[in-house]
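# nightly structure sweep
# worker-07 picked up a monomer target from the shared queue
# config: single-sequence mode, recycle default, output format = structure tokens
# input follows
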Amino acid sequence: MKKKIILVIIFIAVFMLLDQVFHLTHGEGWWAQVPAFFAFLGFLGGLLIFFLGKIVISALLHRNENYYESDRNNQ
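# output follows
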């Protein structure tokens, strides 16, 4: 498991280095000149999707504390 984690970290580090060396422009706005801006934006977007999904799923799946006990009491 540790070997996989180390390989993933090395893989990410290599691609971040390549992003710095071969910086390509993606547009004409000021944000296109910021190094690794789009990687950071994608990371923030992923976090936003994760936390919004967590909120929605927990709202759909949440049950009261006595949800299962109340069913037993009715029988």
